[in-house]
Structures are given as structure tokens and as C-alpha cells.
Amino acid sequence: MSIQELQAELQRRERGIRKLERRRERLLDELAQVDTELGAVGALGAGGRIRRRPRNEMNLVDSLAVVLNGKTMSVTDVTQAVQKAGYITTAANFRTIVNQALIREKKVFKKISRGQYTAK
Questions:
Q1: How many domains is the chain built from?
Q2: Does 54 reside within a domain?
Q3: What pLDDT score does 34 carry?
Q4: H helix or E strand, kind and range, residue 120
Q5: Cα–Cα distance between 15 and 17 in angstroms, integer?
């Protein structure tokens, strides 16, 4: 390879580096904008990290007690009702979690029959 060919190759690679640096800056600007939007809706936790677990005003047991107050419902129905009432979850198996809470909290919930619960 001649010196001219080597110089041409170096210039080509330097242009490629500048192009990549501009692209990186655009992506960093776009990421900063997305972080700003996430922060505005409360999805960023301490240190600017994305908070994966949603925050609810009441814990699950209290939310279930409010939904079941004066009613008898199946686990599936109460699961849907608590979500419709505003409880946010990212759990893939939320029905199972609700079922466990209903079984575990005997002071709060009463089992009427198989799969049917009410609040005490």
C-alpha cells in the first residue's frame, strides 16, 4: 500500500468517526429528553434510574378490603375489580398474588366457599 492510499484510508476512517460522534450526540440528546419525560410522570427513582415497581396509594390487602367491603367475590372478580379501582401491578401472575393475600390475611378476609371471599 502506498503512503497516499494509507492517508486516504485514515481520512475515510476519521470521517466515519466524526459521523459516529454526531450520531452519539443526537442519541444522548434524545435519551435526555426521554429521561425528562419519564421523570415528569414519576417513573424515575433516585439517581435517575427507572423505577420498575409501581407505587400505589394503598397496599394490596387494603385495596382488596375496600373492594370486598360488603361483597362476596371470586378471586378472578376481585383481581379485576382491584385493578379497575386503580391498583397498578406489573405482575404476570397477579391473580395468584391476590389469592395468596386472601388466604394469608384471615383477620381481614373471610372465605365463604371455595374461591369466594368477603371482607370481615
A1: 2
A2: no
A3: 86
A4: none
A5: 5
Could you tell me if residue 55 is inside a domain?
no
For residues 65 and 115, state if they share a domain.
Answer: yes
Which one-letter amino acid corresponds to residue 81? A
Alpha carbons 59 and 69: distance in angstroms, whole number: 16
Domain assignment present for residue 53? The answer is no
Output the CA–CA distances (angstroms, integers) from residue 99 to 18, 24, 95, in the order listed: 58, 48, 6
Instruction: State how far the Cα of 41 lies from the Cα of 48, in Å rounded to an integer.
Output: 13
| pLDDT tens digit at each of 120 positions of the chain | 899 999 999 999 999 999 999 999 999 999 888 888 877 776 666 666 666 677 888 999 999 999 999 999 999 999 999 999 999 988 889 999 999 999 999 999 999 999 899 998
- One domain, residues 70 and 42: no
Structural domain of 78: 60-119
- Asked whether 102 and 109 are in contact (CB, 8 A), the reply is yes
